[in-house]
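Two quick folds needed for the group meeting slides. Do the first one here.
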Amino acid sequence: MRADLPDPEDALTYTRDGTLTIEAVDGTILQQLGPATRESLTWDDIPIEVKEAFLASEDNDFYEHEGVAYRAIARAVLANVRAGEVVEGASTITQQLARIVFLDQDQTLERKLREALLAQKMEQELTKDQIFERYINLVYLGGGAYGIADAAWVYFSKSVDELTLSEIAMIVGLAPAPSEFSPLVNEDVALRRRNLVLERMEEAGYITSQERQAAAATELALTPSDPRNLYSRFPYFTQYVRQQLPLLVDPQDVEIGGLTIETTLNPQLQELARQTVNQAIADYGPGQRFTQAALVAIDPRNGYIHAMVGGNDFNESQFNRVVQAQRQPGSTFKTFIYATAIAGGFSPYKSYVDAKLVVDGYEPKNYGENYSGNQSMRDALIRSVNIIAVKVLIDVGFDPAIEVAERMGIRSPLIPAYSLALGSVEVNLLELTGAYGTLATSGTHIEPHGITRILNRRGEVIYEADFAAEQSIDEDSANIMTWMLRGVVTSGTGRNASLGNRPVAGKTGTSENRRDLWFIGYVPQMVTGVWLGNDDNTPTRGASSTAARVWRNFMNPAVEDMPVESFPELPQLRGREATIELQRVRPGRIQEARDPGDDDSEERASEPSQEAAEESSNNRSTSSDRQETPNRTSRSSPPESPEPVPSRFERPADIEPRAEPVARPQAPAAPPPAEPAEPVAPAPEPEPVAPVDAAPAPAPDPPPAPAPAPEPPPAVDAEE
């Protein structure tokens, strides 16, 4: 029987079955579930009166015996015979610890024998102080309290060093039968137990008669509290962590419990995020008719989720809008289209004509139904010009754009459609924010995650995060995109996100009828995403400039103690080579104006290449079908010719191309028009971008939505 006894050192790291402890990045406890010791004390932190009370009450010969006290057994038998009932136990503190850690409560001879053998083995391999410390921290004392520190909080709402002698004696007196002796159940019984412990302390010489009498005369002043950390202060994040758990470790380990989860959460940033979300809803929600908000902050250098707030009231709604809400990203998705173009070798100064366009029956519209003529890609992104975004998508191709978005971190399904350029797909805030983080780190992507390690009840690591950084887009292209997105903040639709002298890059986005208001922005050390809207998908009267302002409200204090870091310099634009292969879309029919003032546009069939002409007609979309999704080359079958197909949307030849700057170009000084989106019906009048220090005024009620056109996915309505 001795040969199969467990290792006594397991007692030093023991946690009970069914427990779960979630820790923040700094080691503070976020939540503890199940029969857990919520606060453990070191030997030096345990008050001397607590040690003496336990010795006098439970095992006064503790420092003399070797695990089993035969003298105590004889004394207990005699006392119990005289009383005619069990009034005294004979188990030593070491035996009690062996029972807690290694055995059950069965009253069998075999269990009692194993308990005695285990106690002797523990005494041989552990010090007395180690055994006593673990017992004081693990003994159940009723009310969900495991250990003296938990009991001090549960019964008196105090830390252990604030307990009086009377309170210590009452708590220690609970150990033999905590449910029966609990003052919350029967105060008279608890007082008798307290007085018995005080008498034994006097008999052992730990206190004087006067101290005993004074403590015994003290009335109990109970101030009960729930066990510490039973309820999470940050429930959206801890719920997310618990949902991830079965995906990372064996389900049997989860069922057994005793797990400790080490997470990436920064408690200070999380509290700031919670306050920011609640304040945004209170300050801007009533006037702009949104009732919910979500925010997530990630360190793009390692993928750590430092803050996650999925709504304003977890008790009212456990729906986590950071990871569970699939919403249209609007113009925030344009970043992936332009990133594809830049990686495909396009210059940010490549020019397009912003004019009427109908392609395969699909007609994108700018916000305000206006056109701006020739625009470079950079200026079109800054001003969020919808028609140019669609033209760029046609030039780069659906497959390359989708693949770049996926490599950068988008995990939701993406549809090869013209409206993809304007964010008609549905994504969640976490993946969208993580994908923007790829640009903050010069093209390297690390998957956002909230768990770093998981330890079992023995302290063994059973999971450790190992997310390798992947070069999702080449470094130069990522840095060019960051330079372009900086222009959005310095002189475009994201001006409300400015952080003074700290460089910021980001993009606003608004979905159809202002149902979703977004801003995703970053500094080199942190990328943060903000969403505002309504759970029932009803339109708001807000603007994505409000989301940018909420972003700034969080980021201003969040980065206060971070050093100001610059983004990488703008790479050399001349002589750049493409790092991805583009696959230009071949529409069935295009109707486009060559000049923004032209009422008459040229309509013509697309001129396919010889390769396209040889494709099966089953893989083509004719103009009579009026389908929004055109022909596309299979991802597994790239074009035979590596030469890019010339764009049909180039600016007129008589316009001189813009010379590239020697120094970093400055964003245009003139204020841009409101950022557009892609309506099916006429859009409302433009909304001015709010100044940085003022919240934007509510927009007028949107017009009634028209009957949807067949086939195309939902269009985007307006972007300020």
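Then this one, please, same format:
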Amino acid sequence: MATSQAAQTALSFFQGKGWTPAQAAGIIGNLQAESGLNPQAFNGAGGGRGAAGIAQWRGSRQTDFQEFAGVPLSQSTYEQQLDFVNYELTQGKEKDAGARLKATTTAADAATVVDKYYERSEGTDLQKRINNANALTGGGPSVPNTQTPSDVAGEPMGATVKRPAILYPIPNRLHQYPSYIYGLSLHLLTEDEYNNMVNTQTYTPKRVLIASAGRYSPDTFPRSEFFDKDFYFENLNLLTTIAPNNTSRNTNAIETSFTIIEPYGFTLIERIIKAAKAIKSESYTMMPYLLQIDFFTIDDAGKIIGSVEELRKRIPIKLTKFDVKVSGKGAEYRIAASAYNHSAYDKNTVTTPANFEVVAGSVAEFFQSIEGTPADTVSFEGNQVPGERAITEQNNIGPNFKGTANTTYTRVKSYGTAINEWCEKLKSYGKVSENDVYRFEFDDVIGKSLFTHSDTVTPKRTRMQDARTPNDFVNIKRQAAGEQQSIYDPSKVIFQINYGTTIEKLLEYVIRNSDYVQNQLILPEDPDYDQKRKQMAEEPLNWFKIVPIIRLRKFDKIRGVFAREITYRITPYKIFNVRLDIAPQGVQLSPCKNYNYIYTGKNDDVFDFDINFNALYFNQVTAYRNSLAELNPTADSNAVAQQTQNFPNYGGGDASMEPNAIMPAILHPVVQNSTASATGGASDTKQVAAVDLADSIMTNTLGDMMVLKLKILGDPDFIKQDDIFYRTPLTSVTATPTKPTSDERLLPNNSSLVMDNGELYAQVLFRTPVDIDESTGLMEFDSNYKNSLFSGLYRVIQVTSNFQNGQFTQELELARLPRQAAFDYTELQNTDGTERTQRQESNPDSFPGKLGITQTPPIIPGLLQSGGTPQTTADASDSATNETPGQNQQAAQEANNVPPLLTQNAQDLRIVNETAPEETISDQTEPQAIAPNFTPISTRGNRVPGTAAVQ
């Protein structure tokens, strides 16, 4: 068969199986690179039986082929081999690769996924595979698409944004290997090595202290000379808090603990001190260390192949605690640590040192850091700003500054400049030998957001003209001469920051009072309420995440710590399914993970769960937002007449949140939210609403209405790498990833889940039998209770990773999302196909297509991209139960007094039961093991060649 003809045959074949043209081209482009589409291609290199066929299958996959096709690979046809490729990607051992392939939309992306996850080549001829795929589709991008279609943070608020492509859940990538083991290692870094790692986001081991299984290589994994004896990791625990919560707020929290065993001695700390002194460290407790987690794959023969680079995890840490005891195992060292860059959240680091007053017009202007510029202290000659505390004249804001009594404020150019000036004065006064430096980096869409708009700017909050400023002096002179000149600057707003205010709370206060958040609010008080509600109906809430970066400066011998350059990077953060209807109402349709648990027949991850249901949970909302403005004079006296209005429709209109829903919306009106006054006041309607919104976002761990703890086999994707090792670039900064990624939800450099751009979501499905069918021994399902109402879409709050005794497990703490009609089984599980079709046609946004046990989430059909039809596996899974495949017809059958249809397995079992002899079995009465009219079939369900088909 000519190559071009073979390619066209394959293209038609794969498209006929449901793959899009681009996905089919990606498959064929790889097969061309592997074998030239020659079904008799053979490569004897690599040992074993060699590689054979169009996909160059090896080892157990050749055995799988023979079981599937019924003939050896060497005797098979081209069509049989194509069929096996499709089988592997959709039902066989490579279905995880198939799920990834389904998520691609271009030939280049498809070719990359097939190469990386199906063929698993060395990647040296990836471009050739991409070119082959592009040639079959008539062109297209020559490199994989690494842009994030859903990243619209840089778009103006309210702009029309194309819905992102529906993405499939990402399977646990460890499942694609026959087996694996993990390896742990602890490394010691110098300050220069740490800074280089932060700047380049790369690391080369130089000084390994302890490694699992005595791992050592003088060139690539060198041991420290002081650790020539073996120590052992007994366990490692990582607790990662991901979602915004009421403890770590808009930051991440990572707690690490591990146990080291020294079998015969008691020398670990002494050895660490010696290793630190050898690199001229001033303090072994302040030095940066690094935990490395490697995953070593094992082939079918039990041979360790090697560490998988894309699954390797690195966590720079700071040691915080040693607990030591001696037991029968030897000396046990229980060590606690934190992510090294998270020292930016230490109380002595993150606290405002004095009372400051900042005048700014935008978020970035408020926080900008101008090194070498003294704070702009201004005297008002004893005059007070109306309604505010006095401003004192100070020549500096150094350690002798007298304004920490919470009665006076020092006006400064910006908050960042004031803190840096404070730190420099500490050095000049001899309080420290090296000072810290603070920086703030904002994505443009946040940093350029303004505070000022016509309905909130009042003389009280606006800066007055200052005669010592040239432009202001001119305006004041013109006014004195009788010209119409305002003594106020409406482009600036005054902020007063109290001593002791933490930086992360200040960031939240400033950002939520800027246009970045307030332009997204949907308030009934607004005249354009209806129009804005329609604009925001499908948009996510654009919130923010604070990501710290630490670079080490010289060692401060007075404090006994490293001086640091601390950068707070603030990035956009997407949140779907918000609880309150005052924010964008977009819902998540693409969970990153999918878990099928009890009686689904699809579980390969979950082995325990615990559900906490809090019926007392409620959402707090301010009842009369406008009424709060009466407490403060307004610029517009006519607005007073509107301040007594209140609007009742705060509850949303989603049927999944009605009083009898599994998660009803319960609202608790309050006169004033205490958070508003605690963080500097909120007087206008948008500021009050922003406080309510922030409170609803900060999930209370174990205090949400429905929290699910899911214990799963370990998934490396959940081990956080952005923030602590890799950084996702700001949208305003052009950065080229070192490696392409086929999925926007994975880090380009490491392929861990991106956790700092938006919340993570997982779909969970429970099936609930009601009894056992005694005639078959199979579980019996009632259509009224087939799928548990606890099934649905969950937000990932925190992940606990545990490495112990050679096992890698995780516990996910998940909170069930509100407003999830596309995943809610309350309305959907009890309807047959006809009724569902009618309801879907009348209300397509609320009732998606058939729900069942899926590798992919149930998706609203209208949102699917071309060729993106999700693979429904309900048919396959139902074959293990006593109900009709893919359709729940029990209610309809009972209504017509017709017995429910049974699967083939159930029918066979029932025949055996009905024909079983009632008398005692003896040698004379024992039935034949195989009925005469049965023909043996292969384990794949395909008939053995040369035999008649099973009737």
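Slide caption for protein two: The mean pLDDT is 74.
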